[in-house]
């Protein structure tokens, strides 16, 4: 399996990806911000997406969006083709798209809204923390994306303070502090303990 930063050679998969995003949301009965073919194609050709393929077959996909003039980044539209699920593909794709987001926008906060346990697990392994919606971008355009979601009425009733999705945020500032603290000698014991735990 190959996991690559997207380019125009991957445009051939765009209809299949869009269809699977829609079908999966229907099956789960959850809301989804619907993405047009044009929007997804732009992400793919600009290199703002990560795509997994195997023997020229589409396996998985995720793309980068920026909000509030680059202060926030979202890794959105994560989707794995049903026959490739539960093999760690989403984890690999999210890791790659997260790394790409950090390279392109090192000072941006990275966030996501999700109802999915798999995504919550992956995000928390990457260092995201659950937050309230007011911690996210307040860019109108981002929230307009929720208009296509079946739960939009709930979001509006709650005055955009919360909804069915869990908000998760990676703040590079907090991460910087953590890595400095963890490098200090007095934290060596904790680090050792942690590495034993992860074995
Ligand atoms: C959600 C989705 C992307 C997961 O893809 P995947 O390749 O099967 O995920 P992975 O194999 O990398 O699993 C990641 C983790 O989530 C867990 N997981 C996977 N699917 C899960 C599910 N349906 N419910 C609960 N946990 C799940 C895995 O056990 C794994 O946990 P672990 O690291 O503790 O072992 C895939 O099921 C999908 O495309 N679903 C439809 C679209 C969707 O829901 N997208 C997310 C929108 S926010």
Automatic annotation (TrEMBL):
Domain N-acetyltransferase: 1-161
EC number: 2.3.1.-
Keyword Coiled coil among UniProt keywords: no
Region span, Disordered: 176-199
Keyword field contains Acyltransferase: yes
Sorted UniProt keywords: Acyltransferase, Transferase
Biased composition (Polar residues): 176-190
Single annotated GO MF: acyltransferase activity
Principal EC category: transferase
Top-level taxon: Bacteria
CDD domains: NAT_SF
The protein's name: GNAT family N-acetyltransferase
